[in-house]
Request: fold
Amino acid sequence: MNPPTPDKEQNLVVVARLLRPRGNRGELAAEPIGDSKRRFDDLGDVFVGGRALSVESAWWHGDRLVLKFAGVDSISAAGELAGLDVAVTPDRRVPLDEGAYYVADLVGCGVVEKGTGTPVGVVAGWEDFGGPLLLRVETGAGKEILIPFARAICVSIDPEAKRIEVELPEGLRDLNA
Reply:
């Protein structure tokens, strides 16, 4: 059986980021994206740096995910994958609980201020520094603002309509200037 090939038009969904080799048999420590541990129970075929790989095993060491890919059997082979993202096709995503969102679905959403509808910008990506996820919002003219993805700030989220309403705390725009 041939591994899947991503369609050039298809958006892959990042589920983990490979950090570094772990052990001497080609395993890699990985940072999971999102909080669903069940997502890794039966990962199967994935894409790493645009290359299709098959996951032999996935297990948890504390809060750190450890992945072993078929054909990656040494520290040096694993080291070549460090820093790359692990992605799946959208149809292989785990269903989310109500009120939870895939951050990939937020990219491209227009961000507007609640009440006034004043445009803030468009979600271009996200940053994860260990606290709340930060939406990277392009405001125009090459400028960006980081907005915490928190219920108190992102008060209405509709990925299907590509719209997020926010109540920005006073001073947030200045903090990002």
